[in-house]
Amino acid sequence: MQRKIQFTPTADQQLTALEDALANAALFEQVRKAIGYLEIDPHHPGLHTHEFTSLTGVNGEKVFEAYAQNNTPGAYRIFWHYGPDETRGKKRIPVITVLAITRHP
Are 3 and 43 spatial neighbours (Cβ–Cβ below 8 Å)? Predict the structure, then answer.
C-alpha cells in the first residue's frame, strides 16, 4: 500500500537545503530514493528501518529511523512516524510524516 509522505517544516527545510546545494547532488538523490522506498514500503530492506527510542512524535507516536546512506561517515538518516492519516469521504489515506533528514546523531 502506497502512503502519502508529508514533511514537517524542519524536514522540508532540510530537504530543500540538500536540493539547493550543488555539492550535495549525489546525497540529495540518495535521500530522494530513500523517501521513495519509504512511500512504497517503510520496511524496505535497504532502509534498515528501526524504532528510534530517543524521540517521540508530538502526540506520542513512535519515531522510526530509516537509512538514506549506509557505511558512510556522517551517514544521513530520515526520522519519521506514522500518521496522522487523512480521510477523503470514506477513504482512509495512510500518511508518513517525515520529522527530520539529518546526519546520524
Answer: no
Q: Which among 55, 58, 93 has a CA at the least distance from the CA of 77?
A: 55
Distance CA 37, CA 45 (A): 9
Quote the strand ranges of 34-75, DSSP E. 50-56, 62-67
Task: Return the C-alpha cell found at 8.
Answer: 514537517
Q: Copy the grid coordinates of residue 16.
A: 530543500
Amino acid (1-letter code) at residue 62: K
Angle at which helices 9-20 and 25-40 pack, to 10 degrees? 140
Q: Consecutive sets of 10 residues in the chain, 105 residues long: mean pLDDT of each?
A: 90 94 88 95 94 83 93 91 86 92 86
Residue 54 carries which side chain, given as an amino acid letter?
S
Domains in the chain, ordered, with CATH?
4-103 (3.30.2310.20)
Residue with the three cell numbers 517503510: 42
Structure letter (DSSP) for residue 45: G
- Give the SS3 label for residue 42: coil
